[in-house]
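Q: How would the structure tokens look for this protein?
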Amino acid sequence: MLTAFKYFLRLALIPVLYIGTIFTVLVTIFKDAKWGLFLMIALIPQPNIWYKLHSNPYGKDFMDILFFAVLIGILVQKKGFDKTDNSKLIIIFILISYLALWNSSIRFSLPLPFTTSNELLTDWKNYAEMILLYFLVLNVVKEEKQQKVLVVIMALVVLFISIRSYRNFTGGDAFDYDKRYGGPFETVGLGSNHLGAFIAYTSAFFLGLFFYDKDKKRKLLYLATVLFSLHPLFFAYSRGAYLAALCVLAFYAVIKKRSLLILVAVILLTWQTIMPVSVVDRIMMTRTEAGEFEDSAGGRILLWEVALDLFKEHPIVGSGFGSYSMSVGGIALANNTTLPEGGFDSHNYYMKTLSEQGIIGIALLVLILLMGFYSGWRLFRNGKTPFTKGLGLGFMGCVIAMMVTNVFGDRWSYFALGSYFWIFWGIVDRSILLQPKLSIQK
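A: Here is the predicted structure in token form.
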């Protein structure tokens, strides 16, 4: 009976979601923009759900429709567009990426980047929409009560993803490349390393909130989210995510809870004993017994060298948005080099940005990360409620995790993966605007 009931729920989910979304879009535009925003945010990191809508009319445009419904709702309901000190920087960041799209389109003789025949335009559109979520959150979720609702929704989503990992995946006695948990991101071609990065930066955010928020129910939700997230964090087998989590713990130990230093020390001294065997196996694979880098780590270094070669050819503005994958094969051939598996990605977002957008692009990326951290710091130091102080601390941890994980791959530019970062930042900057003596409004 229970099995039949579950089957019925799964069968009914997509039609209900599709019809419900149509109704939500109308409500979002004409009554309250927050409902479309809440639905979109609940679904963003679960493409395994919203990709099933693709077979329905306009199903492939599902997330775009919700995005523009919220945007139109803001205009129709005259909510206004508030600005912060970070607004101009973020807009410039988007515009520079679009100019980089023109650069690669011209360089590789692609159609001009305002027609769908340009193969890179869709990638850029998704990238820009992801960043613009900052402005949607900033201008829709204007009260602390609404921010708390949004935070709870995101915590429940991460908890749901983590519980599915716990139920559906069991690590073996030894690490196996073919047995890694990729979670909902596998639907959009992203692997377990991306899942590990997502879990690292989102759980960092909720751990920061756990330290300060006084509401018992929310604290219990944050704690459950962080504890259950250990399962996908471990069994994504992402060494970059492991390092990010350790850096966040060390940061929180210094800033908030010194007793965490004991936990960090215990992990560093006893990790080979306390970690799952397959996780230990994965970490130990970084170098071979001869002291050389194993294939995965060594391959990344080779790809970084290729990115540097590309940067040297175009140091100021780079070779253009999305151009690394189109250039790396030719560079490897010219250097008589064999690319490792997955060689059409730089496996380091900083190197990718350096090669595609040059000095200008990498400087803007670093500035964005620093300003995000500074927003968290300001709210943490000056927030008037425990919830806002927790937001500030959590976002600082989130930024640190982002900084670390992007050393090992592109954990930044994918809509399903990176959107929560911009949503967190939008909540933080809106909270700053709400502080009576901390206004950053222009």
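The longest helix spans residues 349-382.

Confidence is low (pLDDT under 50) at residues 287-293.

Upvote if useful.
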